[in-house]
Design goal:
By secondary structure, this protein is mainly alpha-helical. Helix content is 79%, strand content 0%. The protein starts with a helix and ends in a 20-residue tail after the last helix. 34% of the residues are buried.
Amino acid sequence: MDLDVFVSAHRAEWDRLDALLRRQRRLDGAEADELVALYQRTATHLSLIQSSAPDPQLTGRLSQLVARARSAVAGTGRASWRDVARFLGQGFPAAVYRSRRWWVPTALISTAVAILLGWWIGTHPDVQSTIAAPGQLRELTRPGGEYETYYSSHPAASFAAQVWTNNAQAAAMCLVLGVFLGLPVLWILLENMLNLAVGFGLMSSAGRLDTFLGLVLPHGLLELTAVFVAAGTGLRLGWTLIDPGPRSRRTALAEEGRAAVGMAIGLALVLFVSGAIEGFVTPSGLPTWARIGIGIAAELAFLAYVFVLGGRAVRAGETGDLGETERSASLPTAA
């Protein structure tokens, strides 16, 4: 493409679109139709320039022009409770359901790794000695020791808030850092599984595995599921850079990135529930079976929410992406 010739041929259309957008008065019917037609043509011009002869200055000008025109044509959306209901009832569960082929294997493999590492730590005293001195290990694992008092060391409300903040940050990091080919996500997963394995191994070697499970399972089932979902989504985002499929890499990354942002918001709500369980249920005086039962109920409710509600939404065409009117204009690029 000869960029100078292209600009000369279409500059008048861009200037006319800019003039219509600057009009202070309300456009009449003919002018409104003209604005829509010029908006569509300018968006196509922008697409052609980006694919054939990218020029930063011209691309920037046309991008702003197309954005202004799109706002004038489609109007500016305002968030409402209907949007919140749609997100919670369709968008978020659909996004989690769509990424199940990533986070379910991630959950299974990570859990197996944590169990194997815990068994290795619990059956090898020499490994335990590298974690802490024998006296410190006894203090950690004894009845009323640090593993047990950790969950009641702070007021329930502040402890729940702290746990929620930390877990939400970890989930957000998995989602955001997935764009680096997923490598940081694998490190975050390994770190979390290693922490879990240390507790599992030390408490089992002290003959107190039942106590450990009674402390971890009430909140840990839902909490770890949220982390696995975030990690799986981050890995999927990283793979999109390698293999975007039939979409252009830019379009694929934008679509998956928008879904990941929505996922971060939804997972923050899920982790709020697990944080509340960890702050109020885990250290409570309820019997172990009751505490674990609450954790299992929360986990089953989330899985039903994803696989029943999310599966239904996906089959109805929901993708977890923004609505059509909320996305940037996307037109076919020149071959």
